[in-house]
Automatic annotation (TrEMBL):
<dbReference type="GO" id="GO:0045893">
    <property type="term" value="P:positive regulation of DNA-templated transcription"/>
</dbReference>
<dbReference type="GO" id="GO:0000976">
    <property type="term" value="F:transcription cis-regulatory region binding"/>
</dbReference>
<feature type="domain" description="BZIP">
    <location>
        <begin position="4"/>
        <end position="46"/>
    </location>
</feature>
<feature type="region of interest" description="Disordered">
    <location>
        <begin position="1"/>
        <end position="24"/>
    </location>
</feature>
<keyword id="KW-0238">DNA-binding</keyword>
<protein>
    <recommendedName>
        <fullName>BZIP domain-containing protein</fullName>
    </recommendedName>
</protein>
<keyword id="KW-0539">Nucleus</keyword>
<feature type="compositionally biased region" description="Basic and acidic residues">
    <location>
        <begin position="1"/>
        <end position="19"/>
    </location>
</feature>
<keyword id="KW-0805">Transcription regulation</keyword>
<dbReference type="GO" id="GO:0003700">
    <property type="term" value="F:DNA-binding transcription factor activity"/>
</dbReference>
<dbReference type="Pfam" id="PF00170">
    <property type="entry name" value="bZIP_1"/>
</dbReference>
<dbReference type="GO" id="GO:0005634">
    <property type="term" value="C:nucleus"/>
</dbReference>
<dbReference type="InterPro" id="IPR046347">
    <property type="entry name" value="bZIP_sf"/>
</dbReference>
<keyword id="KW-0804">Transcription</keyword>
<dbReference type="InterPro" id="IPR004827">
    <property type="entry name" value="bZIP"/>
</dbReference>
Amino acid sequence: AAEEEQRMRRMKSNRESARRSRLRKRKHFESLRDEANVLRGVNVELMIRRRLTESQNQCVAAENYRLRAEAEMLRRRLSDVRRTLILRQLNCSRAWPCST
């Protein structure tokens, strides 16, 4: 009778332990599921930010290209203006030689 009572207590204790184990497992699973959902949201946000950054990068690259082309055009115009000034100075000095 005492052995039977002890066996019944062990069975009850084992059932309670198994129930607590299942509960811990379920809570752990729910925690992992919640974390996965949060990480999916973060991932979506990061993908959106990446696309935005790539788009901004393309705009900056296009602007850099335009500015480089404009700078080259301005360098050429400056060179042309300098050449014109030098030619004018040469023509002027030929027309009005120094009286030294």
